[in-house]
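Re: [help] complex structure
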Amino acid sequence: MHIEAKLEAMGLQLHTPGPNPAGVQPRFSRVRVRGNRAYISGHGPGGDTPRGKVGAELTLEQGYEAARQTGLSMLSSLKAELGDLDRVTGWLRVLGMVNVAPGFNATPDVINGFTDLILELYGEDAGAHSRSAVGMAELPFGIPVEIEAEVEVAT
Amino acid sequence: MHIEAKLEAMGLQLHTPGPNPAGVQPRFSRVRVRGNRAYISGHGPGGDTPRGKVGAELTLEQGYEAARQTGLSMLSSLKAELGDLDRVTGWLRVLGMVNVAPGFNATPDVINGFTDLILELYGEDAGAHSRSAVGMAELPFGIPVEIEAEVEVAT
Amino acid sequence: MHIEAKLEAMGLQLHTPGPNPAGVQPRFSRVRVRGNRAYISGHGPGGDTPRGKVGAELTLEQGYEAARQTGLSMLSSLKAELGDLDRVTGWLRVLGMVNVAPGFNATPDVINGFTDLILELYGEDAGAHSRSAVGMAELPFGIPVEIEAEVEVAT
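Output below.
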């Protein structure tokens, strides 16, 4: 698949999941591998994505971009854990959570930012995934999108 | 198990997960099978279930019925993917999400509409499942219930 | 690992997930085992943990304690199902849900009450887990925290 070459061809750069609030050390694992499964913690967009709620501080388009950036921060964690992004042989389950302003319910349109990236990189066979895309009351420290996932990995 | 004969005896009909909003083509998989596991996307009730929040536009009883209809739309997706609903050999994990009006927290009573259907169809051995039943700020395009699941399938 | 001896040394007691509302009989499984995986239903703190929303009726510190108590009620269910808590050989996935008052978004700090307990009991190898820690609109019957999980078990 040569995912990293594709990322480079697309002009995309991996970035870490974003700084934690001052003094916070996450005690959980970004990625937990067991057998041929990797369980991926909820990731936020990191980088310089604005914080706030989609439908208030962020537009739908900014939410879509935040979901795409969340994909890049998740890929960064996968690379750190697996060494090579080609070891992901199948995306299985994606839980897409949007920090919504009251009344904003186009949550699938937001999470498409993540899905489109994964399908573009991994193709229909490996990249296809089941998905929920839902609206949350609050997300950690005001991030606009959080996504967790489960993937199959080559052992 | 002969699930489809049971559905017929119960006078129930499968129906598709409901039309997408105009112009929307879902890019994710309704059901993603890998080995002996099927990962099932968040499904809504489809059919002519009213949209809105349980505790406001929908009563508890309508929410229960929406969760039952969600079971039928999920079974429709499983039949399309697996060919035969008897290939589901064990329900494992259910995440039941209710679109709640502020203050409505009888979310387990709503998701029982799904659980009761699955137990009636699959029995206690195959139908038993772990479950969460929780209240969401918003669900896609105003559906009252969304449920995702993971099941064991015969390979 | 001798988890139960550790619990005793820490002065902790398992307690059941708490009484259901009058007349309610849960129809789902607290823990569903299949192969070497156990799927654990969303659990609440049980015991005499106050109900309500973190950031309103409960402080952050009370939320942290509620998440810790949720760990104890989950361990109680695991012991009932598995017989011996040492049969849990790896924590994999944790979905931590906080019943939040509007504007309360320090949800990771709340769910740390659960994570800290699991890491203390199971150590870094078996206890490490992927995690999401997010804010819900409502949780069943007003419990402040609900956590579901998936673990690896010795068969």
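The CA atoms of residues 90 and 126 of chain C lie 4 Å apart.
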